[in-house]
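check this:
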Amino acid sequence: MKRFISVIIVLILLAVSAGAGAKYTPPYSTEPTAEVWHTYDPELHYFYQQLTDAEKRRFSSRYDCIALGKPELWQYPCGELSYLNIARVNYVLLFDCPELLYLPENYGTDLGLVQKPNDAACARHPILMEERLSLCMEAMDSIRKEPEWGESDFEKELAADRYLVRHCQYQVEEDLGNGENLDDRLRTAYGGLVYGKAVCEGYAAAMTLAMRCFGIPCVRTNGVYYPEKGQEGGHAWNIVQIDGEWYHEDATWNDMDDETYLEDFYPFLNNPSSDVYNVLRNEPARAQLNFRNPLSTSIRYNYYVRMGQSVGDDWQNEIVQIVKKARSAGKHAVGIRFSDSAVLDAALDTMNSSGLLMFGLLYFRMQAEPIWGTDVLYIWW
């Protein structure tokens, strides 16, 4: 009997000890527990896949902190991590999870110092996120109704790009005057998909969420552009995978005209890195955090190549045929991609001197403008 009681006591002590240990043992392995994590296939979180297991555990606790509204999870014990590890975790949290619709109050360039949400923000955000994410999902149904929508990934990408161009307007940040900041709308997917106003980050987050919901790998990337020598500005755009190849896609710059929808204006749809990095460079933070962007080398799914609107050395005859086809279809504008900058420059010299294009025995006056940062000539009449 005494022996039986001793065994019971030992088992109780072991259970108590295990319970005490569980208090400090993270419940997380690598993935968050919040259901919002499965808005799309978690494998589509591109930069998340580059985290170490230890970083993934910290990421999971912070993801759940935001998605479940539990501030105590922000610093949940997940092992020792360096400043660089924490910065990598926060980068993935802020730039690789458009479904969270989240921006911290101290959102800035020092990702290692991002602070935990306060209790009020944690309590409010899951409710707001659920409401806004539901509206974003309704926008996915609207994208499926766009005229460009089709079965191929290229057609789905094109429909999403056109949806943003048609339904969203670039909006410089401003204060509403009642103390409400527009950041969480203009800079998140909600801004581009539902609110209808966004800065480049909102366009890029919206595109990331849409592509992933359609099962298409897509990365949001940030960088700096150089509009003029000595000037620069921050920018965000996307890198999308179509048929196993990566392409740069920029819905913000495809929405150049704030007032009207430009016909056949797709100069920033599926360009290779060699084109993009002539005018854009990745912000240093990504390289410093040891993250790698996908490499883009193909032009197979560049919009104008795909549509048969690309020209080479025989550009004069080729442009005639492209414009004839566009006019017969009732169009009033067309974009044309040149094989390289030298051919484009030669065409511009010729067209600027005459301003005329011959159709048989008829001359047709056009207006033409090269699109900054690309080898695309936009022609309208």
Remarks:
- Residues 308-381 form one domain.
- Residues 4-24, 176-180 have pLDDT under 50 and may be disordered.
- DSSP finds 14 helices and 13 strands in the chain.
